[in-house]
Amino acid sequence: MSEKSLGLSKALHDYLLSVSLRESAVLARLRQETANHPLAMMQITPDQGQFLAFLVQLMGATQTLEIGVFTGYSTLCVAQALPATGKVIACDVSEEFTTIARRYWQAAGVADKIDLRLAPALETLDSLLAAGRTDTFDFAFIDADKGNYANYYEKALQLLRPGGLIAVDNVLWSGRVLDRTSQDADTQAIRSFNEKLHNDQRIVLSLVPISDGLTLALKKA
Ligand code: CA
Questions:
Q1: Are 104 and 26 in contact (CB under 8 A)?
Q2: How many CB atoms lie within 10 A of CB 151?
Q3: 103: nearest Cα among 30, 22, 24, 28
Q4: Spatial contact of 168 and 213, defined as CB atoms under 8 Å apart
Q5: Which residues pair with 88 in a beta bridge?
Q6: CA 37 to chain centroid
Q7: Among 20, 57, 58, 80, which is most buried by a count of CB atoms within 10 Å?
Q8: pLDDT on residue 14
Q9: Residues 186-213: b if buried by 16+ CB within 10 A, e if exposed
Q10: Rounded to the nearest whole angstrom, what is the distance from the C-alpha of residue 52 to the centroid of ligand 1?
């Protein structure tokens, strides 16, 4: 028995994608357009997007939250996986990035499933709590400013129904979580966030080493 996850060489990762990735044409075009952007590394990888879509379908989710949209790749993956009655409440502060996102959501025919809230996500989450949406969401994806991860998580956990799932991106932070010379605020925030979740008895936890590390937190009944 192997004691750790297999380290993937470029060749093995390419093989993995070649036998599993089913990226739609519109997703591929969005990824290509975003690749030219200076902040392109903020986009999730296609296999990760496919995994989020898989989780949403597995759960039969209809009510979902996204914190951090960027150019809308993950939003599109989730929206395409939802039934016609499903919704994504998508939180971001960037008009520029979400203008790109909206174009692709329209092209994919899922724009009506996506409710974009252009405001600081904590304000949007507070407004949902104030509107009585506690315990009503099935799924939340957190991929935004790392300093607020713990705050987003706490509010998302309240909004989630028991049995609902939060997925959190970048929890391995390119390995910097282990690097003692990395003491910047974002790295420290991710380290303390990971420790917080490890000790949080309100959730069932799994950290999946896909892409830059994806934590799955299932809200206990
Ligand atoms: Ca990310």
A1: yes
A2: 14
A3: 30
A4: no
A5: 64, 114
A6: 19
A7: 80
A8: 95
A9: ebebbbebbeebeeeeebeeebeebbbb
A10: 13
Q: How far is the CA of 172 from the centre of ligand 1 (A)?
A: 11
Which pLDDT band holds residue 133 (cuts at 50, 70, 90)? very high
If you measure from the C-alpha of residue 12 to the centroid of ligand 1, how many angstroms do you get, rounded to a whole number? 22
C-alpha to C-alpha distance for 76 and 141, rounded to whole angstroms: 12
CA 140 to each of CA 95, 103, 133, 211, 216: distance values in angstroms, whole numbers, following the listed order: 21, 23, 13, 18, 10
Q: How far is the CA of 103 from the centre of ligand 1 (A)?
A: 21
Token pair in block for residue 112: 């009506």
pLDDT of residue 42: 85
Domains of the chain: 10-219 (3.40.50.150)
Q: CA-CA distance, 34 to 82, in Å (whole number)?
A: 23
In this prediction, residue 124 has a pLDDT band, given cuts at 50, 70 and 90, of very high
The chain-wide mean pLDDT, for the chain, equals 96
Q: Distance from the CA of 99 to the center of ligand 1, in angstroms?
A: 19
Q: Separation of 201 CA from ligand 1 center, angstroms?
A: 25
* 18 Cα to the center of ligand 1, angstroms: 23
* Non-local CB neighbours of 118 within 8 Å, separated by 6+ positions: 92, 93, 94, 95, 98
Q: How far is the CA of 155 from the centre of ligand 1 (A)?
A: 19
Ligand 1 centre from 169 Cα, in Å? 5
